[in-house]
Amino acid sequence: MRNNESKKCTKQKIFEVSAKLFSREGYNGVSMRKIAKEVGIKESSIYNHYKNKEEILTSLFDYWNDTLTIYRPSEEDIEKMLDYMSVEDVFKQLVIGFGKSLNSTLDSIAKIIYIEQFRNEKARKLMLENLIGESSRFIESVLKIMSRKKIIRAVDMNLIADEYNYTLLALSFEYAHAVNDGEDAAPVIKKMFRHISFICEYLKPI
Amino acid sequence: MRNNESKKCTKQKIFEVSAKLFSREGYNGVSMRKIAKEVGIKESSIYNHYKNKEEILTSLFDYWNDTLTIYRPSEEDIEKMLDYMSVEDVFKQLVIGFGKSLNSTLDSIAKIIYIEQFRNEKARKLMLENLIGESSRFIESVLKIMSRKKIIRAVDMNLIADEYNYTLLALSFEYAHAVNDGEDAAPVIKKMFRHISFICEYLKPI
DNA sequence: GTCTATAGCTAGATAGAC
DNA sequence: GTCTATCTAGCTATAGAC
Questions:
Q1: d(CA A2, CA A28)
Q2: Within 7 Å: CB of A10 and strand D?
Q3: Are residues A170 and B167, on separate chains, in Cβ contact within 8 Å?
């Protein structure tokens, strides 16, 4: 029992420390020694938990993929939200809920995806398929629900989903920088909300 | 003379090879040996042209900064363009002109900025100040000219400049991936133009 | 300005004691 | 499961011959 707990604890520590270090220095900028030192063990001990360095990175990406898929609200959830919330508040809630679902490890992993997207195949896939593709399709499905309920006017939903999504993606880079540099992230959040207001103004029925 | 020419040529080769390799593997993923091998010289010879590895990276960022500042059309240029072009065509021309100004080395440097923005201070500055800040202010100044000429309706120009710019920035990431993977970049260009059409539709005088 | 040779260091990974 | 010790390979950078 104690064995299992301490095993889990050390592996978890390696996991979180790696996320933090990779997000600051990039995968190739962090050595197994640095990770071991920060965890408080010898580098050779890492190999009892992970096969090699690459497997640590892969486990980070897998965690991101699993967690973020679970978070996204279902179509039923959206329907319910629209019963008592405005279009604008639903979109704002999606951003707030997404932000709240991110612990500091997930924040770090997001940055690792940004950094490694041109070098690592898994990171590239997460960027293009998850952060761009799936997100856009999700927003398009939300727009379809709103259209069915006739609370937004007729628009090119694929286009508006892209407009909504790409700007938020770029702003999430700016957000990562603010958090990174220990600056106030409020101005970026404000920009996100201003963007949502702009889209909702466009969507308003005439 | 011949000395000068060959010197310039080797230095230029180091410059271009480094841009290519850094953009693929990241700064920390490329060794001086790899660069030397690809150039066709010994690694020690690099130090006759650059003080160290960091100076190669810095020179790449300086080149980006100098070139892109020179490219951006002046307010007078914009005024002239508007004499015989529509609002939409001016914006499309800005994207096309920007694209044409990029040789393959500048394409690579853009990717290096994306990769290194969270690790390298110069890259971070270029991302936040040049690609986000300056670009947005430039578009805002273009919108002001259009507004003065009364060819667009009254809007929050700071907001629209951000809407215009952030989506294009995110799409430029997708563009970099397409070029990177040897895929067809046309669908991304099409998305850029669709975005511009959307913004111009919004700007149309009533 | 390029070369050979090498210093001096750090990397990822493994063997075997406890 | 963690440790010490160590291997091999790779790294940046320099010295000095040509």
A1: 34
A2: yes
A3: yes
Q: Look at residue A127 and tell me whether its pLDDT is greater than 70.
A: yes
Contact B176 A124 (CB under 8 A): no
CA distance B73 to A17: 46
Q: Identify the CATH number of the domain in which residue B131 sits.
A: 1.10.357
> Mean pLDDT of successive 10-residue segments in chain B (206 residues)?
56 96 97 96 95 96 92 94 97 95 94 97 97 97 98 98 98 95 94 98 94
| The pair of three-digit structure tokens given for residue B114, joined into one six-digit string | 């994306």
Q: What is the pLDDT of residues B96-124, one digit of tens each?
A: 999 999 999 999 999 999 999 999 999 99
Q: Which amino acid is at A25?
A: E
Spell out residues with C-beta < 7 A from strand C. A 30-34, 43-44, 47, 52-54; B 3, 6-7, 10, 40-45, 48-49
User: B82 vs B78, B79, B136, B140, B149, CA distance in Å?
Assistant: 6, 5, 19, 15, 9
In a domain, B5, yes or no: no
pLDDT tens, position by position, B15-29: 999 999 999 999 999
* Protein CA A59 to sugar C1' D4 (Å): 29
Asked whether residue B79 is domain-assigned, the answer is: yes
Closest CA to A152 of A162, A144, A140: A144
**B166 → closest Cβ in A28, A159, A166:** A166
Q: Any atom of strand D under 7 A from CB of B47?
A: yes
* Any domain includes B176: yes
User: How many separate domains does chain B show?
Assistant: 1
The verdict on residue A48 lying in a domain is no
| Count of beta carbons in the 10 Å neighbourhood of residue B1 | 5
Provide the domain limits for residue B113. Answer: 57-203
User: Which residues from A are below 8 Å from B175, CB to CB?
Assistant: none
Nearest CA in chain A to B194: A159
Chain B neighbors of A112, CB-CB under 8 A: none
